[in-house]
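Inverse folding, one chain.
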């Protein structure tokens, strides 16, 4: 019963996402422009709204149907939904001055936006004017300068919320502990790499066709696998750029050109599998020389994580990086 109801919620938002992105596709240049405007990774990213709304609806479903009497789980769900609400927070200020304010309880007793007095306060034509333009005169500052749906914050909230859903569904993902710190790595490397959450299924052809892009798709059904994939893709881009003594921007331009040329010809399922192996599984850049020089037994970077066996460092992790031949 739970599975069917949640699948219905996801289908609803999946259709909405498909329609929205057909009308307004996300572009690299636009995300880079937003990044430059703020100078950090918490630029406005409203494209995540649909995914967050979907996740919040799923959380609400669990609260209202499966965990009706479990106080601890309900509290966890409500805290998670509050984090999502923070992502879309709209901050307004009145034009009330610090040295000329109304009597106590004029505004502070209003707790519900449906209360008549709330709208009375917000109405431009009565008592107090309001808007973001008055916030500079207020002692309280808004995180991220009041930007709605700040990119890095929203991605972290989304991942945290999906972890909670895994817990609620009794399907905790063992990969999250190993790859969680890579999420921060990816977010810190904007604007050279961006995560684009999607509710759609991500097929092999989609991954091949978007390999050249700074924008990498990120499925809510495969969070940690996709984080690791995106991390490996980006790190191989950086490595290739260093080895060929070119900028990362130059590499993206080369990949874009070579992708068009290599995909222009019709290719069969066998070619698709080979390209997927080269540019996704082995994470090599989508360039003519990478594909031409590919050998299945080439040496590739590998990484393994181990628990520290030292008794005084039992909660430390040891990561071993090495090269090993491919299959």
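Residues assigned per position:
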């Amino acid at each position: 019963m739970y599975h069917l109801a949640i699948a219905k919620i996801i289908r609803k938002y999946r259709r909405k996402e498909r329609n929205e992105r057909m009308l307004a596709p996300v572009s690299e240049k636009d995300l880079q422009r937003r990044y430059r405007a703020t100078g950090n990774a918490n630029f406005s990213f409203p494209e995540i709204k649909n995914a967050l709304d979907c996740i919040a609806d799923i959380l609400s479903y669990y609260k209202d149907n499966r965990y009706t009497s479990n106080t601890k789980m309900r509290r966890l769900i409500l805290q998670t939904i509050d984090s999502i609400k923070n992502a879309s927070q709209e901050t307004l200020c009145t034009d009330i001055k610090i040295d000329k304010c109304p009597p106590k309880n004029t505004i502070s007793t209003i707790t519900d936006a449906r209360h008549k007095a709330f709208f009375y306060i917000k109405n431009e034509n009565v008592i107090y004017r309001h808007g973001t333009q008055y916030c500079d005169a207020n002692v309280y500052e808004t995180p991220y300068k009041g930007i709605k749906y700040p990119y890095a914050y929203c991605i972290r909230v989304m991942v945290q919320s999906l972890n909670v859903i895994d817990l609620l569904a009794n399907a905790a993902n063992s990969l999250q502990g190993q790859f969680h710190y890579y999420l921060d790595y990816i977010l810190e490397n904007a604007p050279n790499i961006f995560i684009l959450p999607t509710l759609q299924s991500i097929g092999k052809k989609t991954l091949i066709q978007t390999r050249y892009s700074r924008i990498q798709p990120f499925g809510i059904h495969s969070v940690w696998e996709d984080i690791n994939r995106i991390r490996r893709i980006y790190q191989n881009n950086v490595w290739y750029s260093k080895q060929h003594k070119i900028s990362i921007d130059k590499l993206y331009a080369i990949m874009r050109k070579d992708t068009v040329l290599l995909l222009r010809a019709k290719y069969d399922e066998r070619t698709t599998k080979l390209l997927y192996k080269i540019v996704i599984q082995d994470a090599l850049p989508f360039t003519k020389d990478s594909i031409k020089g590919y050998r299945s037994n080439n040496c590739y970077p590998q990484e393994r994580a181990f628990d520290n066996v030292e008794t005084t460092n039992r909660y430390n992790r040891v990561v071993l990086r090495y090269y090993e031949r491919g299959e």
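The chain has four domains: 1-88+148-172, 93-141, 200-213+223-294, 295-327. The chain is about 50% helix and 10% strand.
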